[in-house]
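Support request from a user on the community tier.

User writes: "When I paste my structure tokens into the form, the page sometimes reloads and wipes my input. The last time it worked, I copied everything first. Here is what I submitted, just in case something in the input itself triggers the reload:"
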């Protein structure tokens, strides 16, 4: 095995809840209210849709807001890889990755192991460091490829926190049979004071529609017994994944960083969020005052 090269789960496609669009000659990230499944091929018009996208969308009757999935590994931390990440836009490569306690940083003398204060308190990151996660899943029951799945990348704290909790909980209640649990990715919406009542979307992980938690656990036990009798070694697979992830300092390939940066780490000047209109009168007045100040105008008294 090549040292310094992280061996990550083979990906046959992507799951996203947004896309990159071109406005005034600039490519900008735009959020969506549904899932999209793509291949790993990017054309001039964006990512090429995966054949499963059309199949699942037709079954859903339009917008794709839930996807039946299974996990690749029993260890929750192998399925969801979350860290604080800083990328070099000019060179297209990862610079620093940490977990809030320690980090691996690229320096003049190679990779350094340093303390990590977290994204909000890092002087080195200068506000450019973000929580960044990759969720690896099998779509459906892995009929097409039992060891190659789809990857969902996100910088959403709501998504990261929710998925981390769900994976730990399902692992606990199933007795460690996380890979055998019939699960479903579900897109949820919520409103916050920061969004002025406008819904924001995040990804949740639930038991598949039509099943109770007890039924899902029973199915997991049955599948685990069938796999063991057939010689499937899940413990060995988890061990191999642990070894592969720890083989390199950075999990994101440099050839993929440009697409990651474009979608999740755009330049501040290019990533201006849409102007949301507050619902209350005071909020609308405050917004108008701010806009007038930016334009150098004065509000009437």
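"...and here is what came back when it finally went through:"
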């Amino acid at each position: 095995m090549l040292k310094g090269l992280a061996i990550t789960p083979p990906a046959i496609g992507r799951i996203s809840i947004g896309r990159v669009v071109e406005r005034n000659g600039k490519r900008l990230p735009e959020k969506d209210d549904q899932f999209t499944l793509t291949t790993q091929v990017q054309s001039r018009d964006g990512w090429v849709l995966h054949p499963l996208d059309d199949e699942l969308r037709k079954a859903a009757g339009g917008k794709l807001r839930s996807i039946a999935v299974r996990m690749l590994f029993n260890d929750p931390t192998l399925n969801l890889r979350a860290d604080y990440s800083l990328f070099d836009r000019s060179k297209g490569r990862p610079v620093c990755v940490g977990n809030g306690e320690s980090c691996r940083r690229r320096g003049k003398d190679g990779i350094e192991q340093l303390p990590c204060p977290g994204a909000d308190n890092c002087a080195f990151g200068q506000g450019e460091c973000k929580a960044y996660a990759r969720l690896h899943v099998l779509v459906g029951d892995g009929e097409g490829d039992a060891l190659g799945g789809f990857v969902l990348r996100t910088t959403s704290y709501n998504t990261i926190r929710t998925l981390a909790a769900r994976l730990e909980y399902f692992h606990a209640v199933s007795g460690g049979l996380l890979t055998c649990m019939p699960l479903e990715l579900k897109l949820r919406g919520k409103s916050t004071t920061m969004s002025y009542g406008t819904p924001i979307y995040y990804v949740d992980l639930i038991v598949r529609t039509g099943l109770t938690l007890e039924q899902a656990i029973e199915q997991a036990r049955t599948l685990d017994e069938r796999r063991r009798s057939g010689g499937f070694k899940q413990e060995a697979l988890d061990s191999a994944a642990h070894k592969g992830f720890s083989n390199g300092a950075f999990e994101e390939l440099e050839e993929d960083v440009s697409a990651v940066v474009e979608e999740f780490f755009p330049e501040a000047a290019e990533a201006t969020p849409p102007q949301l209109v507050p619902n209350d009168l005071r909020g609308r007045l405050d917004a108008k005052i701010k806009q007038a100040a930016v334009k150098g105008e004065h509000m009437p008294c």
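Agent notes: The reload is a front-end session timeout and is unrelated to the input. The two ends are 72 Å apart (CA to CA). Residues 157-173 form the longest helix (17 residues). Escalated to web team.
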